[in-house]
Amino acid sequence: MRTAPTILHLDMDAFFASAEQASKPSLRGKAVVVGGLGPRGVVATASYEARVFGVHSAMPTAQARRLAPNAAYLTPRFGFYRAISDQVMTLLRALSPLVEPLSLDEAFVDLEAGGVAWDSDSAHRAGLKLRADIREVTGLTGSVGLAASKMLAKIASEQAKPDGLVLIEPGTERALLGPMSVRTLPGVGPATGDHLRRAGITTVDEIVEAGEDELVRLLGKAHGHGLYAMALAHDDRPVVAEREAKSVSVEDTYDVDIHDRLRIGLEVQRLADRCVRRLRGAGLSGRTIVLKVRRYDFSTLTRSETLRGPTDDPAVVREAALRLLDAVDTTGGVRLLGVGVSGLADYTQEDLFAQAAGERARAEALERPEGPEEDGGGHLGGGRPAPVPQEPEPAERRWYPGHDVRHARYGHGWVQGSGLGRVTVRFETPDSPPGRVRTFRTDDPDLEPAEPLPLVRRRPGEESAQSAEGAWEAEGVASGAEPGGPASAASGGPDSLVRDEGTVSERLDPPVRAEQAGDGPPAPAGGPTGQADGVVLGAPPW
After folding, report:
1. Strand (E) or helix (H) holding 507
2. φ/ψ of residue 7, rounded to 5
3. pLDDT band for position 435 (50/70/90)?
């Protein structure tokens, strides 16, 4: 391991919920829950005010409503969060070429590789500057952990939450880890934790006392050796700037189980098209098409088919997914469907396009009517009337709670709720006072969806972030201390752990971990409520 705390872990504080609060003045300081709002929705993120009531990520939204009935429940705006994440990642890449993103709101940074830190003092200054820059550029807060390894840097950022900085001095790791729960260590989930607890092991110190041989006996060779090394604070994993994407997948969970086989097929085709859009957006193609089906009884089936070569043709992916569906019994209904592509490459196999084009041509030939050509009077030969194209019925406009809208008269606002042919909108912007609420018909022609507004508006020519010296000099603070207050030593022992706390409206003790789960906008009865789209790094689909 290193001899200086030059690995940084950043974790944005309750990211989705904090972004919503910053975007909506009327929700600041209030309980906010972001996630799927349907009967089967799941909480993605809860604000710290909502966590007071016991709401946490991955909790069913229905349970969260019982715990915090007066909280604001919003559907996610992933494009908005991704734009903020891009701003944060740009700041991280200005520190070092070695940045390892873990999610939209979390990343490791090798400060030594960027030449901005070489000892504790320089690492501490870099962490302070990063937090100040993030607040200035995005208006949000992030917690920073600094240590000599990735594992300890992540543990430090957990200790720093919310809106703080924790630095673990090299040489003090064992003393710090010893009294912590075994669940603190990476890879120890509920099942492994319970297994260790039944063996009388509940703390990291007790793992060390049990010894490596006992851990191997309890957990197996690979897991036992790895866990023992982590208990000794041994972690030599490097910060990896680029990780190869192994798969691209999308899936939807439905409010009401789908029983109609035709509807299931249409949903699979729609998911295949969405998957291909994400595949093309990443500049990739793939050979293996995967179908995921979760049935009414929660049994989950996956089926896959490997093509002759990689493709990004939507017709090829749709056809393969439908062939896989043919082999799945959906009697009784399905509650979740997903389509994924793995075996990724950065090129496409041309003969697959020809195959898809040929199959489409054959399908179109079968659909064309046989017999004489249409005459000039709009009739086919033999006097049979030609089919008249039907205008598709306009889709009903849907208004998702929390999403942005614009009214021709009242300007920018966001949806508070909708139903019974009405939509309620609060008109406010990130830099306005809390706004007024008005109600409209859902088909009001003056109301339309809008793009999110930036959280921080800048004057033309204004730089995105101050230099470290400028930021500190503006506050009149000496190097090594944070604006607003001196560093304070925590209970881990003198000089072992330094915490800098920012100002927050309310601090919880201890802070609760904000994890991300992906849930998209809810759908009407029988429609999708959860969306888990994305490029999955280092893992097969699901």
Report:
1. none
2. -105, 125
3. very high
The pLDDT of residue 281? 86
Q: 224: buried, middle or exposed (CB in 10 Å: 19+, 13-18, 0-12)?
A: buried
Q: Which helix (H) or strand (E) holds 42?
A: none
Tell the residue number behind the tokens 């559907």, with chain if given. 75
Check residue 223 and give its pLDDT. Answer: 86
Cis peptide before 541 (omega within 30 of 0): no
The one catalytic residue among 106, 112, 319, 482: 106
Q: Strands 32-35, 72-74: parallel, antiparallel or unpaired by DSSP?
A: parallel
Residues in the chain: 542
Pull the structure tokens for residue 270: 């729609």
The count of other CB atoms within 10 Å of the CB of residue 326 is 8
Res. 363 pLDDT band, cuts 50 70 90 = low
pLDDT at 193 exceeding the cut of 90:
no
pLDDT tens-digit readout, 402-412? 999 999 999 99
97-101: long-range contacts (C-beta < 8 A, 24 or more apart)? 97/241, 98/238, 98/239, 98/240, 98/241, 99/239, 99/241, 100/239, 100/240, 100/241, 100/243
At 508, which amino acid appears?
A: L
Rounded to an integer, what distance in angstroms lies between the CA atom of residue 408 and that of residue 346? 45
Active-site residue, 158 included: no
pLDDT at 143 over 50: yes
Beta bridge partners of 344: 286
What are the phi and psi torsion angles at 528 (to 5°)?
-70, 140
| Start-to-end Cα distance in the chain | 33
pLDDT at 493: 37
Residue with tokens 């998911």: 271
For residues 173 and 205, the answer to whether their CB atoms sit within 8 Å is no
Are 340 and 292 a contacting pair, CB within 8 Å?
yes
Neighbouring C-alpha atoms within 13 Å toward the C-beta of 533: 21
Distances from the Cα of 401 to the Cαs of 32, 37, 300, 331, in angstroms? Answer: 12, 9, 30, 34
Q: Tell whether the model's pLDDT for residue 392 goes beyond 80.
A: no
Any residues with CB less than 8 A from the CB of 531 and at least 6 apart, and which? 250, 251, 252, 518, 519, 520, 521
Structure tokens belonging to residue 82: 């991704």
